[in-house]
Amino acid sequence: MPRGLRFDAERADAIGLVAVGGDLRPERLLEAYRSGVFPWFGLEDPILWWSPDPRGILELDGLHVPRRLGRTLRSGRLRHTINRAFSDVLRGCADRPDDGCWLTPEMIAAYEELHTRGHAHSLEVWAGDELAGGIYGVAVGGLFAGESMFTRLRDGSKVALVRLVEHLRQRGFQLFDIQMVTDHTARFGARAIPRAEYLARLREALRCEVSFV
């Protein structure tokens, strides 16, 4: 992909592939997110850029918290922090031997650079001093693009997701992109919307001037 080529999500193919190649410079990544596109590829693949149809989102005012998880949240057993251990969260998300490796060393370095520049953020969940789980993503305007989450102790990632939604709502974010709906996120109220609707909502979200921290 030439350095000057712009992403066009509306020209994605039947499986949602928008472009092949390019690089993971911060400017390229931010351009992709603003265009409704995200990178996802394996160790042996070139860089692949996607905009699936439909697109998974989690409505910030539509979060469903299961009853048992609600008890865990109220117990205070698990606390959370913001941007305290970004690299640890990133590597926790990458450490999934049975789930394939899409967070390549190249991707890890790219998101760490985005974090250094204030665009990528993490929410950590702790049991005492032990990292129980976490989630990370990219904030652009009123969009938060959730990239991945992980758990090491029971409910670690679930608490991270709930606390992240609460944080985004409090900070005034408009759109929480989760890319694709899974059985796990569906239990929290995630839903799939047409790409055209997602892109319209994205344009509105990008007009918002909010800050993750």
Provide an overview of this structure.
There is one protein chain. The chain has 213 residues and is α+β, with helices and mostly antiparallel strands. It has helices spanning 26-34, 67-75, 86-94, 105-116, 156-171, 183-186, 195-206; strands at residues 17-20, 38-39, 48-50, 55-57, 79-82, 120-127, 130-140, 143-151, 175-179, 191-193. A seven-stranded mixed β-sheet has the order 5-6-7-8-9-4-10, sandwiched between helices. It has a three-stranded antiparallel β-sheet with strand order 1-3-2, covered by helices on one side. It starts with 16 loop residues before the first strand and ends in a 7-residue tail after the last helix.
Which terms summarize this structure?
213 residues; alpha+beta; three-stranded antiparallel sheet; globular; seven-stranded mixed sheet; 2 domains; Aminopeptidase; single chain; Alpha-Beta Plaits
The run of helices and strands is EHEEEHEHHEEEHEHEH
Q: How would you sum up the major sheet?
A: 7 strands, mixed
The structural domain count equals 2
The CATH homology group name of the largest domain:
Leucyl/phenylalanyl-tRNA-protein transferase, C-terminal domain
Shape assignment: globular
Helix content: 25-40%
Q: Give a count of the beta strands, DSSP E runs of length 2 or more.
A: 10
What's the CATH C level of the largest domain?
Alpha Beta
Query: The CATH topology of the largest domain is what?
Result: Aminopeptidase
CATH architecture of the largest domain: 3-Layer(aba) Sandwich
How confident overall, as mean pLDDT? Answer: 94
